[in-house]
Amino acid sequence: MGFVYQFFLQVKQDVLQGRLPCPVNIAAQLGAYAIQAELGDYDPCKNTAGYVSEYRFVPDQKEELEDAIEQIHKTLTCNYN
């Protein structure tokens, strides 16, 4: 598991610093996975509107991307089976 996590962190850093170009739809998906890993399942009591803006995923991050990340995060669930 350590290698996969390190790989994810490197990709996240490369996208954030602009070394790895990333289309907006892919950035939204990756951002949602990062939020899921950081915060767990979406919880409307904890994850109030705008919570994604506390995180940086791409250079020159726009609100539209943050909204897309929130929408995708709402669909993700942790399965611990």
Automatic annotation (TrEMBL):
What GO biological process terms does the UniProt entry carry, in alphabetical order?
actomyosin structure organization
Pfam families tied to this protein: FERM_M (PF00373)
State the protein's name: Band 4.1-like protein 4A
Q: Which organism is it from?
A: Thamnophis sirtalis
The record ties this protein, via PROSITE patterns, to:
FERM_3
Q: Which domain of life is it from?
A: Eukaryota
Task: From the UniProt record, report the name of the gene that encodes this protein.
Answer: LOC106544649
Q: Name one GO cellular component term.
A: cytoskeleton
Gene3D superfamilies to which the protein is assigned, alphabetical: 1.20.80.10
Organism classification, top ranks?
Answer: Eukaryota, Metazoa, Chordata, Craniata, Vertebrata
Q: Residues in domain FERM?
A: 1-81
